[in-house]
Write a structure and sequence with these properties.
- This protein is of the alpha/beta class and 478 residues long.
- The chain has 3 domains: 3-207 and 309-383, 3-Layer(bba) Sandwich (FAD/NAD(P)-binding domain), CATH 3.50.50.60; 209-307, no CATH class; 396-470, no CATH class.
- It is 36% helix and 22% strand.
- It has 15 helices and 19 strands.
- The chain binds flavin-adenine dinucleotide.
- Flavin-adenine dinucleotide (FAD) is lined by residues 34-40, 57-60, 74, 76-77, 155-156, 187-189, 193, 215, 258, 306, 326-328, 334, 337-341, 343.
- The site of flavin-adenine dinucleotide (FAD) has 33 residues, from α2, β3, β9, α9 and α10.
């Protein structure tokens, strides 16, 4: 089951010309995007397709011409929301050659057999491994093909928030320039310069919460002739209580791995500093990985230790002039695999509002924040919960039994009992609805599963009663 099957499941019309375009104030109006990471170029494409003049300012060099630095080679899990937005931009088909579908989690215990947990109810419900760098390059190429102008090595160092006049520093020369006023959208990630500027506004709310855990990229090289040394259609996971290792497949036969460890304490980045301690830690806790990672020490010392943060702020906009979107507005921890899926959904919602209202930016930006903030807050909270699930619960027999019961309930009550993971990953149910229904469903599962150990012993009449009492049918969009 590959990406093609997913294409067929999600029917988005190729980019249609927006009906409101004729009423837009000015199609030649300039829109400046700060940041050409993942959201910036996708948004640029969607705006160019609607006739706007778009410029992107990116502080880094062009990754297509300069060797990518360590710390940017992680893989992402793309799922329905991200795919929907890529369809909307007419880009999903070109992604098919750079994704590998992952049908479930392959669990690696310290000793014993591997076990496989499917992600979804059947083979259409998969997530897709994609290299961040390849996705970024594909988006940059498409943005330029559509006529967006991308300026590399140009860092936003400030902005007049009332006029939208950006201050830019050219990284190669140190020269600073001030650009003429424009509509500005901050796609500059979790350390957003634009958001920093907005911190000076009266009554701007801001919180950042770091995890006590960090992450480090490692690699499992390809086998002979570029073959994968483990099952390629799976996300591999070594859950070990308060730390874990995961591996996502790449097209070239390698696996991009991420080691998540506490910053401090036993078995932490602070304690694993000598070659001996690292090798011994891997031999004890991830014994099957050791022969697959000949470059373990080299990667461990060369790659930086990243931190993970949840950022919440409001407002996301300054009237109709400035807007924050993606991680700059709502950075989340990576454990639900939703950061970019949520960001791409932001892009989709923004241009839907544009199509609906025309270029009435005050209305669009306010509507955008109104629709997205509640949902970004919800996925931020679910991502933290999922951290505990991934590192701890996925190896627990009771948890696995509940997952089976969830699937059985979904089969019996389709569109009514939909597991939270599926609502978030395989549907476009608003995240806030997934969060609320997830809590209700947890209550139902607790009542049904507490004294039961086999699906056959489930009390189906009680299930019927609880589900009809607590849940209404969901409208599942394609
Ligand atoms: C370890 C890890 C694993 C993840 N896994 C997943 C996953 O499986 N699935 C998923 O959906 N998401 C995942 N994410 C989250 C995802 O990477 C982010 O949500 C996504 O990259 C956000 O996109 P963005 O465009 O908003 O920001 P970014 O991708 O961070 O891009 C911001 C861009 O702005 C540029 N920039 C920054 N400051 C300035 C400035 N002052 N001037 C000009 N340019 C600037 C940066 O150089 C960068 O290119 C993961 C994140 C991490 C850390």
């Amino acid at each position: 089951m590959g990406g093609k099957d997913v294409v067929d499941r999600i029917s988005v019309q190729p980019t249609r010309l927006p009906t409101a375009i004729s009423t837009m104030s000015s199609k030649t109006e300039k829109i400046r995007l700060v940041g050409a990471g993942l959201n910036g170029p996708l948004l640029a494409i969607l705006l160019r397709q609607r006739g706007f003049s778009v410029e992107l300012y990116e502080r880094r060099p062009d990754m297509r011409r300069v060797h990518m630095s360590a710390g940017r080679s992680i893989n992402l899990a793309l799922s329905t929301r991200g795919i929907y937005a890529l369809h909307q931009a007419g880009l999903w088909r070109r992604m098919l050659s750079i994704i590998i579908s992952m049908r479930g989690r392959m669990m690696h215990p310290v000793e014993g057999e591997l076990t496989f947990q499917p992600y979804g109810k059947d083979e259409t419900e998969v997530i897709n491994s994609i290299s961040r760098a390849e996705l970024n390059i594909a988006l940059l190429n498409a943005a330029e093909e559509q006529g967006a102008k991308v300026y590399f090595n140009q860092r936003c160092v400030g902005c007049d928030l009332r006029s939208g006049s950006l201050r830019i520093r050219k990284e190669e020369t140190g020269e600073e320039i001030t650009l003429d006023p424009a509509i500005v959208i901050g796609c500059d990630g979790s350390a957003s310069a634009l958001r920093t500027e907005m911190l000076r506004l009266n009554r701007f709310n801001f919180s950042q919460q770091y995890l006590d855990y960090g992450y480090k990229e490692l690699t499992i090289p390809a086998g002979m002739n570029g073959t994968h040394l483990m099952e390629r259609h799976a996300l591999h996971i070594w859950p070990r209580g308060n730390y874990m290792l995961i591996a996502l497949p790449n097209m070239d036969g390698t696996f991009a791995c991420i080691l998540f460890l506490p910053f401090e304490g036993a078995n932490s980045f602070a304690s694993l500093i000598s070659q001996e301690s690292i090798v011994s830690f891997f031999e004890t806790n991830f014994p099957d990985v050791v022969p697959l990672m000949p470059n373990l020490l080299e990667n461990y010392f060369a790659n930086p230790t990243g931190s993970m943060v949840t950022i919440k702020c409001s407002p996301w906009h300054v009237e109709g002039q400035i807007l924050l979107l993606g991680d700059s507005a709502h950075a989340i921890v990576p454990f639900f695999g939703q950061g970019i899926n949520c960001g791409f959904e932001d892009c989709s919602v923004l241009v839907d509002l544009l199509d609906h209202h025309g270029a009435d930016w005050s209305r669009i930006f306010a509507g955008f924040e109104n629709e997205r903030k509640i949902n970004a807050d919800a996925i931020a909270d679910m991502a933290i919960e999922n951290f505990i699930e991934m590192r701890d619960k996925v190896a627990d027999a009771r948890f696995l039994f509940r997952k089976k019961v969830e699937l059985a309930l979904e089969a019996k009550y389709p569109n009514v009992f939909v597991p939270k993971y599926a609502m978030v990953t395989f549907h476009r149910v608003p995240y806030s609805v997934a969060l609320t229904r997830g809590l209700i469903q947890d209550g139902i599962l607790a009542e049904l599963c507490d004294s039961v150990h086999k699906i056959d012993d489930l009390d189906w009449s009680k299930a019927d009663e609880l589900i009809h009492r607590d849940l209404t049918p969901l409208e599942l969009q394609p």
